[in-house]
Write a structure and sequence with these properties.
Elements lengths: L1 H16 L3 H11 L14 H17 L6 H15 L8 H14 L5 H24 L3
The protein binds protoporphyrin IX containing FE.
């Protein structure tokens, strides 16, 4: 059920705008302007594009058996602190992505999409919280 809603929402977004990277990153940088400086070397947007694709694949795995998705999110949360992403801001990427999808789909953003992505956001928060507890103070 949840996996189908996530997949259907990604397909609907792709059908509407093709690559939603511009909308997702515009939303992320509106939420946290300082994060834009981290992409200064990404002159052609390829890093942002690859990262968004990685996030899609990770979420699709997370909601369909979680073979590696949870582990990847936990390790990237740590990796990204070394990249300069403040620990509390990593999960903002999911907020920005969902906000952008809601805007893109408008009336076609269904309650099933809302519920499925809300459960992903909660799962990501739990993964990060658990990883944070393992990090020595
Ligand atoms: C606010 C949230 C995030 C910011 C600001 C951010 C920023 C970045 C930046 C600047 C890079 C390029 C690093 C370089 O130049 O080498 C990068 C790479 C990457 N990001 Fe993110 N990222 C965020 C969230 C995520 C999330 C949620 C995931 C996956 C679940 C992710 C996965 C990756 C991967 C796989 C790479 C490429 C390889 C690596 O350096 O680990 N990122 N990210």
């Amino acid at each position: 059920m949840r996996a189908q809603a996530i997949e259907a929402s990604l397909e609907a977004v792709a059908a509407r705008v093709g690559d939603p990277a511009p909308q997702v990153y515009a939303r992320l940088f509106a939420l946290a302007p300082a994060l834009q400086t981290l992409f200064v070397r990404d002159t052609d947007g390829s890093v942002r594009g690859q990262m968004l694709q990685q996030v899609f694949e990770t979420v699709l795995d997370l909601v369909d058996g979680d073979h590696y998705g949870g582990t990847l999110i936990a390790s990237e949360w740590v990796n990204h602190q070394n990249l300069g992403v403040p620990a509390p801001q990593f999960a903002l990427f999911f907020t920005a992505m969902i906000d952008a999808f809601r805007d893109i789909l408008g009336d076609d953003w269904t309650p099933a999409f809302e519920q499925a992505w809300a459960s992903v956001t909660a799962q990501v928060a739990a993964i990060i919280e658990q990883r944070a507890r393992q990090t020595p103070a």
